[in-house]
Amino acid sequence: MKVKVAFQGVHGAYSEDAIFRYFGEGTDTLPCAEFVDLFQAVDRGSATHGVLPVENSIEGSVTVANDLLLESDLTVVGEVLVWVRHCLIGHPGATLEMIRKVYSHPQALGQCMNYLSKHPEWEKVPSFDTAGSVRMIKERGSLDEAAIASRRAAEHYGMKVLKEDIQNHARNFTRFFVLEKNPPVNMPGDKTSLAFTTKNVPGALHKCIGAFAEHGVNITKLESRPRRERTWEYVFYVDIDGHISEPEVKEALIDLMRKASFVKIFGSYNKARPLEGIDKG
């Protein structure tokens, strides 16, 4: 079956960058209006895979994405990192001096505020999407309007990059999960993601976390967030080194299941390959 990958947003979105980085340029993509539509597209077979942003190095976790993961039966089969390099994008005939309004997603506007604050004459207008903002100003045709998005978005819509790398922090990365329904059994991997809830007894979290230490399994991420529709209950999201088929990981997970009130394994997969051209210091 030909690979077709669903993502939230419109063509030119950073999620589409993630798709091409993981699957290769020219991969067939399916834009979805909302994250839940992405999950439904994969679940119903409209797409073979989905690519979902789950964490940004500046803003933290994408909470709605993690909530949907908890409710879904899709499996995490991979991860990919994207370097977020925001560009100020205008019409081919526009110049910086002509700009009066700048549109983008509120998070992107915030991530570029150091640059934007140097232009108090510009009106900053929140929009629903980065790449969608580029498409919108193209359709409106006003030379005094600009948008903040990726270089790929500018190229896709035939627009002009007026200024590149305008983000506050150069080291701005987004982590994406690759999702699949009923993937092949025993896929390779060196990392596992899961979630659990604890029993309401003293020391419950300590005992759950201890299950990994007791079996020599390294935790690389631990985060909690409220469990929807269960007031004051929390879900702990965990990443660990190793594949669920490895004996020490398997034993740690069995131990966790004894100590936790709920455990869900999202999947085991290969760690994202490093981004090229970035100073590791």
Q: How would you describe this protein?
A:
With 281 residues, this protein is of the alpha/beta class. It has 3 domains: 4-83 and 172-180, Periplasmic binding protein-like II (D-Maltodextrin-Binding Protein, domain 2, 3-Layer(aba) Sandwich), CATH 3.40.190.10; 87-164, Periplasmic binding protein-like II (D-Maltodextrin-Binding Protein, domain 2), CATH 3.40.190; 191-269, 2-Layer Sandwich (Alpha-Beta Plaits), CATH 3.30.70.260. Helix content is 28%, strand content 33%. The chain contains 9 helices and 15 strands. It has helices spanning 14-23, 35-43, 63-71, 106-111, 113-116, 130-140, 151-156, 204-214, 247-259, and strands at residues 4-8, 28-32, 49-56, 60-61, 75-83, 87-90, 101-104, 123-126, 145-149, 160-164, 173-180, 191-198, 219-226, 234-241, 260-269. Strands 1, 2, 3, 4, 5 and 11 form a 6-stranded mixed β-sheet that branches. The longest helix is centred in the last third of the chain and has 13 residues, at 247-259. The chain is elongated and about 65 Å long. The mean pLDDT is 94.
